[in-house]
Design a protein that fits this description.
Strand order of the largest sheet: 3-2-1-6-4-7-5
Oligomer: single chain
Shape: globular
CATH architecture of the largest domain: 3-Layer(aba) Sandwich
CATH class of the largest domain: Alpha Beta
Number of helices: 11
Strand content: 5-15%
CATH topology of the largest domain: Alpha/beta knot
Length: 244
């Protein structure tokens, strides 16, 4: 098995609520020049669109395979690790890493895990709801006095950083790698936990969302595998049985 090819296959670029179809085409072109082909969208304002086709400029095959998702849960359901990109660090936030450090983390995880790189809307960036689903946050170390990058430029920078890191590494696929629980499995656990906290009267309607956000951050740092998720859900099942 060519593990470098596997890493390229395992990385998906996801653009959320894109306003301008030209940015979708330009992002597809940026990806293809670096060897990446997996592009997904969340509720784009316009797609398919002739402007996207024109700016793809030879990357029409990437656009043809691009999947459009109705919400973030659908878009992330096939991923194990989610990395969101935001210029500014948020309150109660995950690790906020420069692009080269993000690339190093992805290379370590990418042989065995499906990686989603999540980019927000051109104007508003990632929402707080989108950020809470991320295991890490990344940023591009740009001029602090003028750090605004076009969406497709940000995609190009990350695709290049990843390609450089892939080229620098040798990969041993004979050793079994740890596979992180899928987003759907992790999200199912969070829903199960929230329901259990409500059954225990430990979920305050005012502070509950903030509590669950902190819990998500904690478990995202742990990066549970499927067996660990099942262990915790088994414990929750027993708690709920005792309550009933």
């Amino acid at each position: 098995m060519n593990s470098k090819k596997e890493i390229y296959k395992n990385i998906t670029f996801i653009l959320s609520h894109t306003s301008h179809p030209g940015n979708i085409g330009s992002a597809a072109r940026a990806m293809k020049t670096m060897g990446f082909h997996n592009l997904e969208l969340i509720c784009p304002e316009k797609f398919p669109d002739p402007e996207a086709d024109a700016l793809a400029s030879g990357a029409g095959d990437v656009l043809e395979k691009t999947k459009v998702n109705v919400n973030i849960e659908e878009a992330l359901s096939r991923s194990n690790i989610i990395i969101g990109f935001t210029a500014r660090k948020r309150e109660l936030s995950q690790e906020h890493l420069p692009s080269h450090e993000v690339a190093k983390k992805i290379i370590k995880l990418g042989v065995s895990n499906k990686i989603a790189l999540l980019f927000g809307n051109e104007t508003s960036g990632l929402s707080n709801d989108e950020i809470q689903h991320c295991h890490y946050l990344g940023y591009i170390d740009a001029n602090q006095n003028y750090s605004s990058l076009n969406l497709s430029q940000a995609v190009q920078v990350m695709a290049y950083a990843l390609r450089q890191e892939i080229n620098l590494n040798e990969f041993n696929t004979s050793t079994k790698k740890r596979v992180i629980a899928s987003f759907a499995e992790q999200n199912g656990f969070y829903g199960h936990l929230e329901g259990t906290l409500k059954n225990l009267d430990l979920y305050d309607e005012v502070q509950g969302k903030r509590l669950m956000h902190r819990i998500r951050l904690m478990f995202n740092r742990i990066q549970m595998d499927k067996d660990e998720v099942n262990i915790f859900r088994g414990i929750l099942n027993q708690i709920n049985k005792k309550i009933d």
